[in-house]
């Protein structure tokens, strides 16, 4: 478990303290995949780099598994870095070392592993990340996705409990992003590793995260389960991210809504309700006619969800809304 208690971070620039993270309190649970989303400069990297003390807080306390790490000295810091692995947007591999030597590097640095232990751990990790045939290659001979797999294997070498991912898929194409995210999700599930993942793409959050914090100008402005935050965004920044990830053009949407007749509702279905043939029944029972203005079915992690924007005319709207709500459909009246 990672706990932030009124943690604040300012950088000294030209003799002035510039705040990058305002006083923040939050808890990341052991074993969860926790996303941090925000625009450039929002403070995401600062927040994450405080967890392994790449940055020291200016104020407040950080606890990892109940231990206050805030004032750690050099020895404790080395132990913390073994416990908290990290992967980066640009991989940060050592170009003069082979794939196997890159993965072995943190174990050699730790100094308490035998040669046999290192050899067997490297082989195990190569297989785990699907690079069994690439042990003797150099980073320059690998694709971006393969480089990130090496980064992941290296971060896992000393069996950390926490993995920090700083824009780990931002330099990758969509298909490679998918496969790296799947690898991270598998690692989280199989090893029970806590993953803290920074991204500027809500889609990455939707695919792998359990909970998410949205950051804006050095503050966490919204935090919750991915399904709550994704399906019912409250803060304008969160809304922007969700609309962007769904390729929704807001002015086009407003025009479409302006032309539609009657009441306009947005329905959100989660889990099993997504697949039920509910609308026909509701229309028959309430006498309401509806037309579909927009709709999508997708997944948040493993849970299906659907969202439909409808215009409704005639009949008994109250009966229709009660029937939908009774079927655990979230109903939002847009007009
Ligand atoms: N070492 C530093 N010295 C001075 N200012 C810094 C330093 N690192 C970050 N900042 C500033 O702190 C603020 C937050 O930066 P941070 O890198 O945490 O944001 P971010 O959300 O991760 O952005 P990005 O997505 O661009 O990486 C920014 O205004 C940035 O310019």
From TrEMBL:
BP GO terms, sorted: amino acid transport
Pfam families listed in its UniProt record: ABC_tran, NIL
GO cellular component: plasma membrane
Entry's localization field: Cell inner membrane
SMART domains: AAA (SM00382), NIL (SM00930)
Domain called ABC transporter: residue spans: 2-242
GO MF annotations, alphabetized: ATP binding; ATP hydrolysis activity
InterPro entries the record matches: AAA+_ATPase, ABC_transporter-like_ATP-bd, ABC_transporter-like_CS, ACT-like_dom_sf, MetN_ABC, MetN_ABC_transporter-like, NIL_domain, P-loop_NTPase
Its biological purpose: Part of the ABC transporter FtsEX involved in cellular division. Important for assembly or stability of the septal ring.
Keywords for the protein's UniProt record, in alphabetical order: Amino-acid transport, ATP-binding, Cell inner membrane, Cell membrane, Membrane, Nucleotide-binding, Translocase, Transport
Family: Belongs to the ABC transporter superfamily.
Membrane topology classification: Peripheral membrane protein
Protein name: Cell division ATP-binding protein FtsE
Domain of life: Bacteria
Organism: Marinobacter mobilis
């Amino acid at each position: 478990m990672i706990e932030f208690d009124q943690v604040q971070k300012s950088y000294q620039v030209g003799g002035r303290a510039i705040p990058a993270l305002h006083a923040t309190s939050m808890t990341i649970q052991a074993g969860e995949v926790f996303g941090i989303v925000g625009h450039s400069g929002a403070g995401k990297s600062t927040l994450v780099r405080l967890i392994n003390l790449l940055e020291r807080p200016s104020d407040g306390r950080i606890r990892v598994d109940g231990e206050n790490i805030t004032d750690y000295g050099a020895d404790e810091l080395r132990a913390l870095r073994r416990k908290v692995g990290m992967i980066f947007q640009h991989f940060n591999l050592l170009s003069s070392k082979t794939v196997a030597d890159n993965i072995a590097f943190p174990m050699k640095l730790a100094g308490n592993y035998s040669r046999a232990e290192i050899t067997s751990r490297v082989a195990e990790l190569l297989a785990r990340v699907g690079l069994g045939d690439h042990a003797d290659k150099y980073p320059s001979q690998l694709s971006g996705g393969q480089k990130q797999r090496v980064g992941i294997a290296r971060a896992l070498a000393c069996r950390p409990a926490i993995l920090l991912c700083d824009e780990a898929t931002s330099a990758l194409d969509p298909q490679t992003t998918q496969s790296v995210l799947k690898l991270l999700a598998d690692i989280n599930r199989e090893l029970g590793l806590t993953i803290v993942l920074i991204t500027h793409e809500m889609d990455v959050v939707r695919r792998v995260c359990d909970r998410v914090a949205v950051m804006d100008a050095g503050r966490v402005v919204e935090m919750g389960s991915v399904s709550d935050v994704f399906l019912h965004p409250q803060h304008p920044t969160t809304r922007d991210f969700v609309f962007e990830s769904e390729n929704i053009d807001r002015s086009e949407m407003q025009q479409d809504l302006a032309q539609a007749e009657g009441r306009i509702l947005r329905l959100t279905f989660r889990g099993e309700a997504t697949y039920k043939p509910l609308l026909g029944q509701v229309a028959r029972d309430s006498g309401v006619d509806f037309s579909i203005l927009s709709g999508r079915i997708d997944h948040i992690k493993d849970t299906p969800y659907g969202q439909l924007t409808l215009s409704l005319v005639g009949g008994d709207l109250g009966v229709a809304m009660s029937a939908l709500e009774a079927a655990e459909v979230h109903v939002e009246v847009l007009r």
